[in-house]
Amino acid sequence: MSSSFILELLILLLTVGFILYKLFTRNFDYWEKRNVPYPKPTPFFGNYYNIMTFQTTIGHDIKKLYDEFTTPYFGIFVLNKPHLVVKDQELIKSILVKDFNNFYDRTVLSSEECDAIFANALFVVRNPDWKVLRAKMTPVFTSGKMKAMFPLINDASLEMITYLEQHSSKSSLEAKDICAKYSTDVIATCAFGIQACSFKNENSEFRVTCKRMFDFSFSSAFRQVSYFILPDLVKLLRLSFFKPEVMDFFRDVFWKTIKLREKTKGKRNDLIDIIIQMKEQPDNSIDFSGDKVVAQAFMFFAAGFETTSSTMAFTLYELCLSPEIQSRARAEVKEILSKYKGFTYEAIKEMKYMHMLFCETLRKYPVLPFLDRICANDYKLPDTDLVVEKGTPVYIPVSGIHYDPEFYTEPEKYDPERFSEENRGRIPNFAHLPFGGGPRNCIGERFGLLVGKLGLARILSEYELERSLDTPVPLEYETKCLILASKVGLPMKFKKILSDAV
Ligand code: HEM
Questions:
Q1: Which residues bind heme (predicted)?
Q2: Domain edges within the chain
Q3: Which residue in 173, 263, 290, 323 is a FRET match for 358, CA 20 to 30 A apart?
Q4: What mean pLDDT, rounded, does the chain reach?
Q5: What architecture is domain 16-496?
């Protein structure tokens, strides 16, 4: 190789490097020009270097920045793109509720070409389709429908207890895995009308597919993070959000179930019944066919499976570390079960301390550590000089807010009393956001809580939870996923209560 060739190659590489550097740093004066404080960005990565190199989770990084900045809002750069992070309670209320008409979509890419099912799931779909779909899906979550689905959920919780009976002699069981099996079974039966049998068969198709959805592999992490921050790359590579085999599985199972149900005209009080009803009453405002329909059942899984099982598992984790809180929770379960003579929808609804536990778990472990919205039109932030430009992504830093000592004294402490009737009034409305807020909040909140509370009540009524040698204290979090998860799962001892069972 001649020296002139090496020199030319070097010049070429330097020129390309320089152009890329300029391209990826061209916006780095954006917040400076608008007088908005911001952390110093790194070329190519912006403020996401630690996240993109999987050294930390988005939640922990956002919390760190939340603590660093004392201003009502601050800017960050996600790669080269400016994002606004809003801390102030009144401003959060404006974005989520008062001025929702300007913040109705999320930032995650919705692309039919890359992933038709994901693009049409309620969490992802953009306006105007979102408005129509949300109205269509809202009746699925009324108390009447929840109550009708209760027997299906109850059956799944019994499967879990049978499993525990067979395995609780072990010195340690993985609580996250048990909760994931339970929520897989619940969602499969409620949304797809199918018995997933995750407890009976470790390798059941549903269980294996669900595991694949949120595995911590590099390829899953790359796909999912890219949907939020590298939409152009997703479009270029035509990536689906979940692996293609996951989507094919759901599409196939869904249509088989619909066809069978339409043929047999059977009713199960599940989502499939409701979807068939929707298909039979066509609505001109939206094309409700093909993958748009599959997306609504799939959404139960994508948005409900991991969130519900994580919340339940983190609650079990805290209870195994706090015997007093656990005893109080068990006492309530026993009292209410004897009043209602067993596990009923009404019994679960009446468990107030159980509700406090879930509120505190979701404060300490918010499954989605931040909320995001896109600014639809130039918008002047109330009582400030800042005009947020159309298209700017806005984050609400949930994990930072949930650990802010102004709202929660000793934020690291697990203390359900914060949510007692006397105390909960002291928490500002937008300082507890595990289910988001405003018209685009979580549609499945009541369903998720019902499933989690029933599962936990079943376990507490028959098992004592104890820390085992492999229970991780303190927790280390998985960095290769968007949601909050322990790196090593949540193993603990499930000890059968012999004399005192309900
Ligand atoms: C403990 C369990 C759950 C937690 C912590 C949770 C949390 C959340 C959060 C934080 C959001 C974003 C809200 C916002 O941006 O303001 C959300 C949205 C959503 N969740 Fe949940 N969720 C849970 C269970 C469920 C379940 C069981 C389902 C379905 C059966 C579900 C379906 C959805 C859907 C469809 C959305 C998007 C709503 C929309 O854009 O209109 N979630 N959830």
A1: 442
A2: 16-496
A3: 173
A4: 90
A5: Orthogonal Bundle (1.10)
